[in-house]
Automatic annotation (TrEMBL):
InterPro entries: AAA+_ATPase, ABC_transporter-like_ATP-bd, ABC_transporter-like_CS, ABC_transpr_LolD-like, MacB-like_ATP-bd, P-loop_NTPase. This is ABC transporter ATP-binding protein. Residues 16-247 form the ABC transporter domain. SUPFAM superfamilies: P-loop containing nucleoside triphosphate hydrolases. The keyword rRNA-binding does not apply. GO terms for cellular component: plasma membrane. Pfam families: ABC_tran. The keyword rRNA-binding does not apply. It comes from Trinickia symbiotica. GO terms for molecular function: ATP binding; ATP hydrolysis activity; transmembrane transporter activity.
Length: 248
């Protein structure tokens, strides 16, 4: 994975900026405000946790940050360039080349082996040998080299999530969007996934934007933002503050 260049001692430049992002839905004649004037900047090496109750807007914000959904109002910028007026093909390339996705339910293909699932993260590469080599190296990086020929049904939940993380990382994204990555895992498996995320972040400077209810995960993140009713509130500086956030 390649770090973004920057001047010595300079603050990393923004990779993604969300400015005054709002997302509204209609339910009959009623207008539902899922996000209300969100501002958020992600830089190389950031690891940011979004913490809040169900329905607070966390997943909606992740979908917009990952260019899976469009805001009703507001602007998204990639490395300082406004993107929202871009053609869908440009958005596809942004999702393909710059962003990795990790989901709560793994989203692995049941009939494919672990290594074949990871290769899907490189679907556009025509060189089959390169796809296989990169997938094999990433599976080893997440500690599952001995499981590369196993199908998802032959893996534990924690192993499936590590394969999902390998698929997200194999293309060397600038940042990873992770929606409840430990929600379906036991304590030991969740701890292994958290350790892996922190290791990848520290070693490769990969940024992570993570939505989670899991206080075990959230307590280890260096930057934690509280979301309530579609609004980001001041950062949670201490574990005591985190304990007072209602996340159920």
């Amino acid at each position: 994975m390649t770090d973004l260049p920057q001047e010595p001692g300079a603050e990393a430049r923004p990779m993604l900026e969300l400015r005054s992002i709002a997302r509204e839905y209609r339910r009959g004649a009623e207008r539902i405000a899922a996000l209300k004037s969100i501002d958020l900047t992600i830089r190389a090496g950031d690891i940011i946790g979004l913490i809040g109750p169900s329905g607070s807007g966390k997943s909606t914000l992740l979908n917009i940050a990952g260019f899976l959904d469009n805001p009703t109002r507001g602007t998204r910028l990639i490395e300082g360039k406004a993107i929202d007026a871009a053609a869908e093909r440009t958005l596809e390339h942004i999702r393909r080349d710059r962003i990795g996705f990790v989901f709560q339910h793994f989203n692995l293909i049941p009939v494919l082996s672990s290594i074949e699932n990871v290769e899907l993260g490189l679907f556009w590469l025509k060189d089959k040998a390169e796809r296989r080599d990169r997938a094999r190296a990433m599976i080893a990086r997440v500690g599952l080299a001995a499981r590369e020929q196993h199908r998802p049904g032959e893996l534990s939940g924690g192993e499936q999530q590590r394969i999902s993380l390998a698929r997200a990382l194999v293309k060397e994204p600038a940042f990873v969007i992770a929606d409840e990555p430990t929600a379906n895992l036991d304590s030991a498996s969740a701890a292994a996934v958290v350790e892996l995320i922190l290791s990848i972040n520290g070693t490769h400077n990969t940024a992570f934007l993570i939505a989670s209810h899991d206080q075990r995960l959230c307590s280890q993140l260096p930057r934690r933002l509280r979301m309530v009713d579609g609004v980001i509130h001041p950062e949670l500086e201490t574990d005591s503050e985190l304990d007072h956030v209602r996340v159920a």
